[in-house]
Amino acid sequence: MKFCAFLRGVNVKGTTMKMSEVCSVFDNEGMKNVSSVLATGNILFSSDDDSDQLKLQLESVMSKHFDYEAFMFIKSAEEIEDIILQNPFEKTSANHIYVFVTSVGMEEILMDEFLNANISESEKAAIVNRTFYWQVQKGNTLDSEFGKILGKKALKDKITSRNFNTLEKITTKLKGI
Question: What is the pLDDT of residues 12-41, one digit of tens each?
């Protein structure tokens, strides 16, 4: 089965690693067809194991190898394709769309945070099949009150986000492995 591991907090705030080295760690753990997309911790691979087992195994080995507390979310190629197909927002040149990959139930907490934040007129959020989507005007991502949620330490093992364009790149590359 084909998967993508979405690593949390990679190449931000002092946690730096080369994707080639991360790929080697995955390869040494028996993953097949290992590659990366961008330098933000998107590792593609194949395995016959289930995603829960893979998460535990890979978080452990990444933590040991890089001497940091690794957090990741693993989605199958089919799950990622469904996330793309179910995007509730129209892609425009004026906005970014972010998808939050989360622990079960976190999408509702994110929606509560969004509804309680001081948001701009162009910001929108939606939950579709337990996936949280956020649309924000380009140039406002880091200034958005809701956007600052990613930095909350209490959520570090519960959420990560990716730009919708990144998910499309991941899907395209997964089709080739």
Answer: 565 678 999 999 999 999 999 999 999 889
This model's pTM is above 0.90: yes
What are the CA-CA distances from residue 4 to residues 40, 64, 119 (Å)?
Answer: 12, 20, 31
DSSP 143: T
Interaxial angle between packed helices 19-28 and 51-66, expressed in degrees from 0 to 180 and rounded to the nearest 10: 120
Q: In what order do the strands lie in the sheet with 131-137?
A: 124-128, 131-137, 95-102, 159-163
Residue-wise DSSP of 12-26: BTTB---HHHHHHHH
Boundaries of every domain in the chain: 2-79, 80-165
The CATH number assigned to the domain with range 80-165 reads 3.30.70
Domain spanning 2-79: CATH 3.40.50.360: no
